[in-house]
Fold this protein.
Amino acid sequence: MTILTIDKKQFEKKVGKMDKEMDNTITMMGTPVESVSDNEISIEVFPNRPDLLSYQGFCRSLLQYLGKKKFAEYNVNKPLKDYVVKIEKPVKSVRPYTACAIVKGLKLDNEKIKEIIDIQEKLHLTLGRKRKKLAIGIYPLEKIKLPIRYTAKKPDEIKFIPLEFDKELTGAQILRQHPTGRDYAFLLEGYDLYPVFIDANNKVLSMPPIINSRETGKIDENTKEVFIECSGSNLVYLKKTINIIASTLADMGGQIYAMEIQDSENFISPDLKPEKIKVNLSDINKTLGLNLNEKDFIKYLQKMGLEYEKGEVLIPAYRADILHWVDIAEEVAIGYGYENFNAELPKISTVGEEDKREVLKNIIREILVGLNLLEVSSFHLAIKDDIKKMNYDFKDFIEIENSKTEYNVLRMDLASNLLKILSENSDSAYPQKMFEIGKVFSLDKSNSNGVEEKERLCVALSHDSVNFTELKSVLDYLFKMLDKSYRLEQFDNFNFIPGRSAKIFVDNFEIGIIGEVAPRVLSNWKLKMPVSAFELNIGFLSL
């Protein structure tokens, strides 16, 4: 949850009086009002709606909800001469992608500049995961010569005066001496090259995801035209983010110009054409328990800023939360009003009983938590490249059709996900001891859907002296408390250090594997601490 604070007088001038009725309307739209003072309104914005993290975006959505504004469409002018950003090979190993835009005709004042900075930082915190997934830079175009290069250099070769400083620093010095550099230094830890944006005059615009140049990276009230870039490791998120910022600036009165991004596959950015999702009204009605006709269906869609055309719902390019027709059903429910649904008791009578498998999982949880292990829960969907980091020869992926994100396959193990979590928390205190109970998926032609689901347990321990013996003691205690017996059989597996791994057997059935994770795998995840892990099928541990 993020708090959006907006000027009350400005809000009332654009939307309407902030009274109890307006308070209730805003809350029913899905953005509860946190507080109202004489000068400010504070509103809770949930992570699924980053397009509402600015005054412009919030008012746009609220006016649509009130029926005062139609579906938002934005004109994007074609790239002019030299409106080019070239992604060079060295940066591919650090932060490989960027999406960009140019906005002209702005009339900025202190309030608008504050709003731009505010949405930039809120997007860094939410979609950007504290700049890890993406970082945003906004620059006065009049101080830049196009075209622009996005590349990477050795830290000591990067030299510029960063924002809020009056002396030139190298990339390495920025991470040590600049307050922002120190805060985000961990994002470039372990890299030999640092990313930079450089203009045609060879001036550094910024060193993402850390800081902009003071000379070329600071907008003020005299700025009429801006260059916007968003860099990171997930191109889908970058494109969505650039759409959110470009549409916000367009609502301030700017005109959007596209740029050509030259990469292995060139593309034009931003692309603000609406996305389309096919829907069946009967599916929507069945899901919500309603009996809407097409006219009412369209009315509720329009309240939520969507549009309907020939069996397809049009999704604005700035919306990052609608991936499936079920998300559209949720939008219709909000437009219809949750307060208008009638509560009904199910017309069935049952006797409830806790599933025996859940009883077993809860017992396992209590045992492992008692050993000071932390339970984690990761996605059933995984990234193919993440699985390859551990299981490099794995090929039997179960892929998701038309995935809207980089998570495009069903996970085939839990260990890969735990290693990813360890990698993402490598700057946290050690020891790190965690476990996960969850489903994994494999191809099985004997099943009607061609997929087999199995429930597994994975335990991972990480600190400077972790070893096979420590991990085996966890396994021993688990089986002792479950009143079960097992045996180990030495087995060399390329994911584990030779001689320090074994198969786990129960009643002559192989149920899992245990061992010290191989240096190759640790290197792929940029893990500096050793890791020991076991993963087993809990179907053989029934009570």
Remarks:
- Residues 2-65 form a domain with the Phenylalanyl-tRNA Synthetase; Chain B, domain 1 fold (CATH 3.30.56.10).
- The chain has four domains: 2-65, 76-269, 275-338, 356-541.
- The two ends are 41 Å apart (CA to CA).
- The longest helix spans residues 235-251.
